[in-house]
User: What shape does this take?
Amino acid sequence: MESIQSSLKKWMRENKNFKGHFIKIKQQLMASPEVAALKKQHPSLDDEAIERQLMKIYEYHSQSKRCEKCPSLSECINVLPGHVPHINVEGSHVHIAYDKCPRKLREDQQRKQQSLVKSLYMPKEILEASLDRVDLEEEKRSEAIERMVAYLENIKDELPAKGLYFHGPFGVGKTYFLGAVANRLSEKNIASMIIYMPEFVREMKSSIKDDSLNSKIEAFKSVPVLMLDDIGAESQSAWFRDEVLGSILQYRMMERLPVFFTSNYSLKELQEVFTTSTRGDVELVKASRIIERVRQVSEVVPLYGKNRRH
Ligand code: ADP
Ligand code: MG
Assistant: This one.
């Protein structure tokens, strides 16, 4: 790489005994099995050509290519961590290129997948949730688990247009399920966004001040999978219900984009929660419109079981 070449040049400039070192390096290189193999493989690479390109060959020689012996990416000894040199010979010309090592490739892939799950105000344990760790034996949750697995298996070129609406008592693992689905989706390279509803309302209210409201609403509209955690637990406001939630759900319904929910409420109960005031019929109509949207973008799955909070 450039950095090695230039540091080598610098070293040569500064080093008074350069010639001695040069000869020593050359001798070492010429005697190394690696260079011998290279010469054998490329007969066009004679001693003169090697001498002319000694720095490149030295660079190649000095870098580790034995990734299988490497304990971890952070302990990579190469100048460009996570990269392995390989040498190409064209006629008598030597080229060195660097490729990502297997560990680096794996890490990049993992990082990419993690970045596919966007979350706001979600605890770490939920973001680390995995379907593999879901207790499959527990009978009461089996329907919910089956529905989750069926959803994930139904993903073909397109996502199923309806997500799932998990409702049930506190602590049975509803939110955990969202995290598990989000992580499984990311393995399939599908981006999702999870948000905790009480914070969602606060976030949106504070976005009015800094003009970021519309761009945030756009993000919630367009993300491939949206997950709203604990709907009904937010402080109620007709503005949030109609202008924010209503508009996001309306858009997603038309575009056939799925939404997942968790709630302590059934849809019938949620409708009551959304009837924010006693202004009579108008409120009732607006609340039932929201419930209708929820129904259009998700399928209801009750979830029971023991309280897992300790
Ligand atoms: P809910 O959203 O239904 O109130 P949570 O999803 O927050 O419940 O789960 C309650 C607690 O139990 C959390 O600490 C969560 O991490 C844990 N939990 C839930 N389901 C599982 C699971 N299948 N495996 C391990 N921990 C779980
Ligand atoms: Mg929860």
About this structure: Residues 238-254 form the longest helix (17 residues). Residues 15-100 form one domain.
